[in-house]
Amino acid sequence: MSISLRDAAVICAGEMRSLLRDRHTVVYSVLIPVFLYPTLFLGMVQVVTVAKGASERRVARYALVGEDSAPRLAEHLATASIARSIAGKNQMTRLDPPEAPASPGSSPDVLLARASAAEWIRSGKLDAVVVVQATEPGCAAIEVLHRSDRDASRSARERLSAALDAFREAELLREATALGADRTLFDLLPVADLDLTPRSERLRDALARLAPLLLVVMTALGALYPALDSTVGERERGTLETTLIAPVGRTELIVGKFLPVMALAIAAALLNFASMAAALWVFFLQAKVEVPLAILSPAAIITLLAGEAILALFFGAAMMAAGLFARSFKEGQSYLGPVMLAAILPAVAASIPEVRLSPLFAVVPVANLALTLRDALLGKLDVSSGALAVAASAIYSAMAVWAASRLASKESVLLGQPAAESPGAGRFGGRLFAPFWRKS
Amino acid sequence: MRGSEPLIIASKELRELLRDRRAFFFAFILPILLYPLVFAGAEKIETLRKADVGDRPSRVALAGGTASLIAWLRADPDIALDPAGPDLGALEREEIDAIVLAPSGGDGEDGGSDVRILFRGLSRGAGAARARIERSLDGFRRSLVESRFRERGSRLDPGRIAETSARDVATPAARAGSRLGGILPILLVALLLTGGAFVALDLVAGEKERGTLETLYTQPVAAWSVMAGKFLTVLTVSIAAVVLNLAAMAASAALGLGAAPGTEAFRLPGLSAIAACLVLQIPLAVLTSSILLAVSACARTFREAQMLLLPVTLVAILPAVLAALPDIQLTQLIAVLPVAGTALAIREALAGEVRWGYLLVVLASTGLYAALALRWTAGLLSREDLRLGLESEPLLEARTARARARRGVFFGIAMILLLSYAGSAAQQPDGPLGVWGGLAVTLWVVVLLPPLAYARAFRVPLKDALALRAPRSGDIAAAVLLVPLAVVVIILYMDFQNTVLPFPEGLRGELEKIFGGEGLHPALALFLLAVSPGICEEVLWRGVVQGEMEREGRPLKTAVLIGLLFGIFHLDLYRLAPTAFLGVLLAHLRLTAGSIVPCMLFHALYNGTMVLAGGRVGTLLSQGAEKLPFLQPALLLASGGMMALVARWMWARRRTG
Amino acid sequence: MQPAITADRLTKTFLDRRRGPVTAAKEISFDCGYGEVFGLLGTNGAGKTTTLRMLSTVLTPTSGTATVAGHDVVRAPLLVRRAIGFLSGNTGLYARLTPRETLWYFGRLHGMSHERLGPRVEQVLDLLDLRPHADVRCERLSTGNRQKASIARAIVHDPPVLILDEPTLGLDVLVASAMVRFIADCRARGKCVIFSTHILSEVEKLCDRIAVVHGGEVKAAGTIEELRLRTGKPLLEEVFISLVGG
After folding, report:
1. How far is B5 from chain A (nearest CA, A)?
2. pLDDT in tens, A212-246
3. Is B59 helix (H, G, I), strand (E, B) or coil?
4. Which of A205, A298, B632, C164 is buried most, with the most CB atoms less than 10 Å from its CB?
5. Does C111 touch chain A (CB under 8 A)?
6. 171-230 in B: which are within 8 Å (CB) of A?
7. Do B303 and A22 touch, CB atoms closer than 8 A?
8. Are C161 and C189 in contact (CB under 8 A)?
């Protein structure tokens, strides 16, 4: 099965010229990534800032029940509130419980509070309920009742917990002082965590997990529409037949059409990726986070480019076959959803560190490339598995190209008409696989 | 417009769609069939993740520590003390999970030294190891403190003196509902858009390419009917897509797929919540369908429409992502925002809280946006050039006034982008230029040079572009007079804005430092913060960009656009409204005075006043407000009124030509 | 000399989902030689297009054989395509290429060398009076010029056989008559031209021999004179109607 490369090259040049002349699409495919990501990131930054401001301003409302069991608690909480209100944020204020107690006495209060806290918080009357119960003489158990499905309750809980921690310390100090000692009696063994991972390594890990996913999605998207356009789109516009009359083999035709699709997919993916990276960099600058640019070392860049090329090879071929399989351009459009799913799921799986590039995974399409890219970026690539993955992917691509050229020989694909078939080919499956049986 | 025409068109479109069985299958049925697969896959992945850590004890290497501490740690079943000492290499090779460095001195009598836990954040066992070590140390500390207190004669158990804990009283169903409420709105918007995109793109852009759109417009059918018919089709398909997808997801979840061990099963929310969600969905679907049609109408070919769709989808989903943020609540302000209001209302409904008052506001506002979008789409579809898919005038060699105005706007947008990249890079506090140097470079290089280059490249005479005309004395006087009025109005407005859109404290402090020109000699501060923007920003906005836009002869559109772009240019949500207002005012100045000089004057004077005296004026006003509660609204009205009068006077004597 | 085109019992059956097998062309047989213009005359849906497509290897015959320029359409399609120039309503032009670029593209695909192609492109452009529009994108050409560009594309490699499906469809009087002249010119140069049409005046003007096709079958084949004698009708229109059984 020899291919006339010259013929394929001629077709490729013609297609590229035609594609690049579609000025609007070219302009959009450049402008959109360049404008989109900065806008998105800036927008997100603004939104998060607003959210933070709003949250800090909100005053947490709590009720305190059973305070007799911890006599100094109420005052402590009140003092803490005053201190915060001077700072103007993260304030707390004490309210009375919504339902008045049946009789003054701590136990009924506490039981009632326990039973009703969920409802009080749900109805928005309170954000949290602090319940105090005496355990032993001089000791008390203090519980903050909150609801995790209410944001106000969650932040109230945080503020109250901080205040209660301070209270506990104060009580301990009180007892220690009474014993004639100071805080060193109980303030022992503070614990400090230290993450030894250098910042650059953490960023490199993040890059290695995200980049394959992003590249896979962008390449799949970037390949689909050009592929559809140059196959089923051309058929609908009537130019496919023109090319078919020329004395070129079907394989040359597919290869010649496939290369521009691949080139476009690579261009789109890299443009999007670069723009996203640039926008992120600015975002980090604005957030005053230091980004060691070393994570984008020459080695990493080369790895990304190589990975992208192989991805584009695979997706380009697969999309060409899909494009020829479609009966109409509209139908080709409908492949977008399944294509995205087929691309995203393996890529997401690859972003999880527990999933490893085993020989099994090395033959799963898309996932194998994503995993290889990830491991390569981390510098932990097992060369044999990586080679297996690349080889498997190349084989899949070749199979897709072969399938596409078989489909291109099939009349019903060329002309959009059902052709005479062997008996029993009326079923969906039969028609699906017929081109691979018959010679054309 | 006969009422039945849209229905005739819509039913034909739907029939055509259903007849293309293969397309229908791939677009709608196949994704639904894949849901169980997706859920199962997610479950498998989750299981993989958990299995990896497993239940083995954490391997910890200990250095130092008293005998009792060592014994305590050794006794912990979840911790395996490595016999070899701490070895950073072993930590890196993941042979151990963490290293603990403890003081060896007598049980920490030297209070100050702490216990250090060293780990590597990326290794799998680190998180569990840390938690277990901290828990163990807590227990050790507690027993130690207890014995010490007892030694001193205390009768109290120190661990129980003020024992604090927290309890979540939300039911599992409520919790699950809350989690769902975070992602469901995003999912809904995404499904509405992607479900309808397929059809919307084909109905307009696709038909344009096939030439069948023209045929339709030659029928005795009102253009509005055509659009309404297509809109109904897109709407039907969008809603059907959402319903199908959600049903498939619910079915998969009900079948128990995707419920990894340990997550709570989800129960359907109450009836009123479901009703609220359904009701909210309708105007949202109307809005997304009209957006989709607009995109399809703007595009000249299918491919162009597809390209446009991606950013539109992302931008439309962004407000829905708001709903996922924990600290946002449904306020009056947010209820009015498109998509965001609906998303938050749905989230609250799923959390069991249905506030019908807010719901009505959300419904009304979304309906309004939808109606506006539909009207815009109808306008788009009646434009000849769009209907026939003609190529628009090239941007660069613009000749007509309209094209030049467009080019100017694009240039403005490009400048905003340039500023966000270059400005941030230049104004790094620790960068080579420092904040002030960076600001100077940003203004004089990044802001000033490109418009000059634009004028040169497109052969716009600078004199025209910058309207460097001698101003009339009346214009100068008006510009000067407007400064104090604007100062008062803006300060009062910012006070009001702060109540609705509160400013985070930390950010405020930082900005005040910068705009107060702290650490700078007053003359330098004035130069950097008043004179430089007064020149450079005006050259860009009221100079080159407005010069291009004025050619179209639509002063209102010019002023509004320039104001808006100017506001966005400052890249700050909090200052968006005031700077946009100032932008409109400045544009008005140039429009009426026919010269850029009053604009520069106003800008420099306004900035200067704010830098030098803004704080003081603000304090004065708030002090005055305390004594006289009506002072602020009265001042606002008075200043605003006077500004309006001055503007009106300027308009009456505007210079034409 | 060997005939340029021979068709021997060409049959093409399509499988329609609802109606079952549909025979678009049934046992079509005829031949034509070099220096001859052969017309396929028939109504719409008669099977003309199907026949022409089989001859140009776009469709594979269900049964029967055909040779074009001495090559079998089934066994040597590549060689057949090298020898033909095909033109039909469906064979569109690449919208964003100019006529000159189109000619270069197809010339290269036909394996013509740079030295040969250069002068040939200019020659063809002159021949069809396309030079003023040679560098305008095809999407911006008028219908007539587009048709000319399509013809140019079909002949750039100077094929000995021309297969034209309804070549004057949609053309105005001037362009249509230019087309007719062109076909006559091809015959003068010794090419074999087979074209399908339902416009009788063209047939009378141009064709040496014709075949009347109806319902997928060849009802009659021969010179116009022979058919007149056979049916006993003087006017071609009446000849046609009587053969077709209307």
Report:
1. 25
2. 888 898 898 888 888 888 888 888 777 887 877 88
3. strand
4. C164
5. yes
6. 171, 174-175, 177-178, 194, 198, 201-202, 206, 210
7. yes
8. no
Measured distance CA(A275)–CA(A291) in Å, rounded: 16
Q: How close is the nearest chain A Cα to the Cα of B637, in Å?
A: 28
Burial (0-12, 13-18, 19+ Cβ within 10 Å), C246: exposed
Residue type at B155?
A: R
φ, ψ dihedrals at C165, nearest 5°:
-100, 110
**Listed residue (B498, B492, B439, B437) closest to B637, CA to CA:** B492
pLDDT band at A146 (very low <50, low <70, confident <90, very high): very high
- Looking at every residue in chain A, the average pLDDT score rounds to 80
List of long-range contacts for B395-400, beta carbons under 8 Å, 24+ apart: B396/B458, B398/B458
Q: How far apart are CA A147 and CA B173, in angstroms?
A: 12
pLDDT beyond 80 at C26: yes
Chain B residues within 8 A of A171 when measuring between CB atoms: 161-162
Q: Is A22 on the interface with C (CB under 8 A)?
A: yes
Whether A119 has its CB under 8 Å from any CB of chain B: the answer is no
- As for the ipTM of the complex, it is 0.76
B201 contact residues in A (CB cutoff 8 A)? 333
Contact partners, residue C227, CB within 8 Å, separation at least 6: C210, C212, C220, C239, C243
Amino acid at C102: T
Q: How confident is the model at residue C91 (pLDDT cuts 50, 70, 90)?
A: low
Q: Does C97 touch chain A (CB under 8 A)?
A: yes
Chain A residues in contact with C110 (beta carbon < 8 A) = 246-247
Helix (H, G, I), strand (E, B) or coil at A131: strand
Q: What is the band of C35 on the pLDDT scale with cuts at 50, 70, 90?
A: very high
Helix pair B356-382, B340-350: axis angle to 10 deg: 150
Nearest residue in A to B49, CA atom: A354
What are the backbone angles phi and psi of residue A150, rounded to the nearest 5°? Answer: -120, 125
Half-sphere exposure of B205 (CA within 13 A, CB side): 27
Contact A184 B413 (CB under 8 A): no
Q: How far is CA A56 from CA A155, B506, B509, C43, in A?
A: 9, 11, 15, 82
In chain A, residues with a C-beta closer than 8 Å to the C-beta of B429 are: 288
The answer to whether the CB atoms of C96 and A21 lie below 8 A apart is yes
Is A330 within 8 Å of chain B by CB?
Answer: yes
Distance CA A431, CA A420 (A): 11
Asked if residues B144 and B71 have their Cβ atoms less than 8 Å apart, the reply is: no
